[in-house]
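Q: My labmate handed me this sequence with no annotations at all. I'd like to see what the chain might look like in three dimensions before we decide whether it's worth expressing. Could you predict it?
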Amino acid sequence: EATSVGDGEPIVCITFPAAVQAIIWEHFRLPFGATLCVLGLILGEWINRYFNFWGWTYFPINFVFPAILLPSAILLDTTSLLTGSYLATAVFGATAWGLIFYPSNWPIIAGLHQPVEYHGMLMSLADIAGYNYVRTGTPEYIRMIEKGTLRTFGKDVAPEGR
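A: Here is what I predict for the chain of 162 residues:
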């Protein structure tokens, strides 16, 4: 599957902000390059998620929200400001980026881990959502393909046959 910058891989998410931070720091000595880049990336990601996932295929927006990168970018910029060193920023700023990534994204996904009873079974809200909106690569989707049903994700995208 194709991934984009806000999909939640910290090593992929840090490349653009680090490059923009280095350029803005080198030329202007302003310590907000990573934050500025992340704001632009998140704006683009939300536009993408809304129009492509919700507007085009009606996929629930709470399944496709981009990763929260702003706290990580602020830490990266703060490290650059306090140390003034590319090496220290690369070592300590990137470490801080990775360490704060999961805790900063936890509040938005924590609600999906609430236990509920569904048809006599105890499961999380994320499990129920995953059963109702089957995604590619999951065992449920693989079973549908092996069984040979006609259900696809293309019903809203492709024109219907006669």
